[in-house]
Write a structure and sequence with these properties.
Blueprint lengths: L6 E4 L3 H12 L4 E4 L3 H8 L10 H10 L3 E4 L10 E4 L15 H13 L5 E4 L7 H12 L6 E4 L9 H6 L4 E4 L3 H10 L10 E4 L1 H32 L3 H9 L20 H14 L5 H24 L8 E5 L14 H11 L3 E5 L12 E3 L3 H5 L4 E4 L4 H5 L13 E4 L15 E4 L4 H4 L1
Parallel strand pairs: 1-2, 1-4, 2-3, 4-5, 5-6, 7-8, 9-10, 9-12, 10-11, 12-13, 13-14
The structure holds nicotinamide-adenine-dinucleotide (NAD) and uridine-5'-diphosphate-glucuronic acid.
Uridine-5'-diphosphate-glucuronic acid binds next to α8.
């Protein structure tokens, strides 16, 4: 039997679903609401609509315990004290701003059914000032309800979302109503107070923390990618350089892995939204704008390397692209660098066969096909490009493919095969950020 829910989560995507299942696991009774009938049907059947390690088991566990339900109807949350809003805030194509349409719809729907004193917790990533505007809107539209808005940005990473939910490095809350802040603090009381720092501030600081954290991490990735251009051209090994920098605890080792450029549903959209917002307020973020431009151009840098390896002839050549997801352990292809590299290659007339263990990508270009295995993608390939750092590609028996490839050439954009160079000595193995002369 399902207990009547006290917490509603609005949006059953990467953030909302993890939040809903995580809170249910911690003992809360939760209703998770989405506008997608397909999603809700799947979830009611215990099938997660997204891939996240451990999610299916956890979902089954909380459904069996009767602590979670799924609904298309916001009305089913009428008795809840808290509404965690985790709808998308995608880029508005024309302006670069975050599109707040889904958020406003969700908040307006909640305001119609919420009971007096309920708290609306904004987990979606929103431009600075949004929570204050939502509070004003609620106070104007339903003043008798005394609804309160609390900002509670999400920091989870796809691929390790469950771990990030249960072991957050911090919980950030922002608001103007102390009672509402305390209510949300109480919902999270399971987190060991000594281990998880709680940062409680105003809406503006809380919203800024979210964007600034993503911008800083995107900057770190972009920085190492630019240094990689240098080592690749002048000499050196970017992996050792990253380690050498990162061992300085003031810099830190994380987010210094060279790659095809940052992608995903958040870094590209959030860096753009922050830069756009800052410009609108007359406080241009020059570092951030440079980060965005450098990252956007990275695919061309990679294209030049591909052309070098294929003697400048790309038209009609077969390229196997290993990895479509924006990083390993997710099926998410939103703003994936792999997808932009695929299109850059197609634009130059290459024939692309792409394979990913989880992600799917389709395009109408007849020179593109998604393969169902590494073997199929590499069959007849003139070059194999490793774009996503899946373990399957790190461990794959490439030597078994030697007879079936067109040419034994690999360009590894994630340094996945670096420790296997001796074993792969029959291959022309090229690494991003490492001058090919250093390989020999
Ligand atoms: P998502 O697209 O995976 O999920 C959003 C869900 O909201 C969808 O299922 C959609 O159908 C639903 N929805 C839209 N309007 C609705 C409404 N009115 N009522 C109910 N449901 C509605 O998005 P996501 O990746 O979970 O991201 C959500 C927010 O969290 C974004 O602001 C994002 O920037 C932020 N965020 C995402 C991540 C991440 O790793 N994906 C991490 C931190 C923060
Ligand atoms: C990122 C943040 O890490 C989360 O804290 C945040 O909550 C989330 O965005 C969000 O706001 O949605 P995520 O997008 O899941 O999480 O992925 P990351 O692991 O941060 O990777 C982002 C991109 O940077 C990927 O394309 C990844 O391949 C790339 N990256 C990351 C590198 O190229 N090198 C690195 O060292 C690290």
């Amino acid at each position: 039997m399902t207990v009547s829910p006290s917490i509603a989560v609005i949006g059953a995507g990467y953030v909302g679903l993890i939040q809903a299942v995580g809170l249910a696991k911690q003992g809360h009774s939760v209703v998770c609401i989405d506008v997608s009938a397909e999603r809700i049907n799947q979830l009611q059947a215990g099938v997660p609509p997204i891939y996240e390690e451990g999610l299916e088991e956890l979902l089954g566990e909380v459904i069996a315990a009767g602590r979670i339900s799924f609904s298309l109807e916001v009305n089913s949350a009428a008795e809840c004290d808290a509404f965690f809003v985790a709808v998308g805030t995608p880029t508005e194509e024309k302006t670069g701003n975050a599109n707040l349409g889904y958020l406003y719809t969700a908040v307006d729907d909640i305001s119609q059914i919420a009971r007096k004193g309920a708290v609306l917790v904004v987990k979606s990533t929103v431009p600075i000032g949004t929570c204050e505007r939502l509070q004003i809107r609620l106070d104007e539209r339903v003043p008798e309800k005394n609804l309160s808005v609390v900002s509670n940005p999400e920091f989870l990473r796809e691929g390790r979302a469950i771990q990030d939910f249960f072991q957050p490095e911090r919980v950030v809350l922002g608001g103007a109503d102390v009672a509402a802040l305390n209510k949300v603090r109480e919902i999270y009381s399971v987190f060991d107070k000594d281990k998880v720092p709680f940062l409680i501030s105003d809406w503006f600081s809380s919203e800024t923390i979210k964007y600034a954290a993503n911008a800083f991490l995107a900057m770190k990735v972009t920085f190492i990618n630019e240094i990689a251009n240098l080592t690749q051209t002048v000499g050196g090994d970017i992996e050792i350089v990253s380690k050498g920098i990162g061992l300085d605890s003031r810099i830190g080792e994380q987010f210094l892995n060279v790659g095809p450029g940052y992608g995903g549903s958040c870094f590209p959209k959030d860096t753009l939204a922050l830069a756009t917002m800052a410009r609108r307020h007359g406080v241009q973020q020059q570092i951030l704008e440079a980060v965005i431009a450098v990252n956007d151009n990275r695919r061309y840098m990679i294209l030049r390397r591909v052309e070098d390896i294929l003697d400048q002839k790309l038209r009609g050549r077969r390229v196997a692209v290993l990895g479509i997801a924006f990083k390993a352990n997710t099926d998410d292809v939103r703003d994936s660098s792999a997808v932009s590299i695929i299109h850059t290659l197609l634009d130059e007339g290459a024939v692309v066969r792409a394979y990913d263990p989880m992600a799917k990508y389709e395009t109408s270009d007849s020179n593109y096909q998604q393969s169902s295995s590494v073997e199929e993608a590499m069959d007849g390939a003139d070059l194999t490009l490793i774009v996503t750092e899946w373990d399957e590609f790190k461990n794959y028996d490439y030597n078994s493919q030697l007879a079936s490839v067109g040419q034994a050439k690999i360009l590894d954009l994630r340094l996945s095969l670096k420790s296997r160079q001796d074993e792969l000595s029959d291959w022309d193995l090229n690494f991003i950020g490492i001058n090919s002369l250093n390989n020999n």
